[in-house]
Amino acid sequence: MKIEKAGSEICRTIQVVVEEEERSPEIKNPVTGEEAERGGEELFVPPLNFAVVDNGVFRSGFPDIANFTFLQTLGLRSILYLCPEPYPEPNTEFLKVNGIRLFQFGIEGCKEPFVNIPDDTIREALKVVLDVRNHPLLIHCKRGKHRTGCVVGCLRKLQKWCLSSVFDEYQRFAAAKARVSDQRFMELFDTSSLKHLPMSFSCSKR
């Protein structure tokens, strides 16, 4: 495993390098080598709160072993991980087997998650999302609600969505756990420094 660190401490990037001969077409579950089967058919179980954000971009809660077979169908190149905790060993092994790059932006999970988080953290995360070389890409935190919701919400502002649509999408995933502070953060987030970056997917207003 090759570990790279960006110039700032905002993002920890892990490039997992796998020799071609290490890959095995027989492996169904890259960690356990077991098949999740029911009635002879392999199960494809998406992670909690999984959804398509746009072409080549997905969102979810934290994937576990039961979700790995489903994630393989996405052909992921990258995962954008928004929690500060180290990535679990089974998930790291999944990255290794499938040649997936991990971008980690450690945002603390608490009741007011963005009060003391600089905009630069979200801005740098969005640069990863906007770079098509990282697609297909999965954005996830623990539950796929607040941290993931704020990154996606700021992306929607870049896509010129109106705020009511941004908030509607956020609330659909956060439900009863929706936070006024998150919505305030998205409302005030300045996208001007990112508008020069190429946008390869939908920019339609909503």
Automatic annotation (TrEMBL):
One Pfam family hit: Y_phosphatase2
CDD domains (UniProt xref): PFA-DSP_Siw14
EC number from the UniProt entry: 3.6.1.52
GO MF term list: diphosphoinositol-polyphosphate diphosphatase activity; phosphatase activity
The species this protein was found in: Tetracentron sinense
Domain of life: Eukaryota
Protein name (record): diphosphoinositol-polyphosphate diphosphatase
InterPro entries on file: PFA-DSPs, Prot-tyrosine_phosphatase-like, Siw14-like, Tyr_Pase_AS, TYR_PHOSPHATASE_DUAL_dom
Gene3D superfamilies in alphabetical order: Protein tyrosine phosphatase superfamily
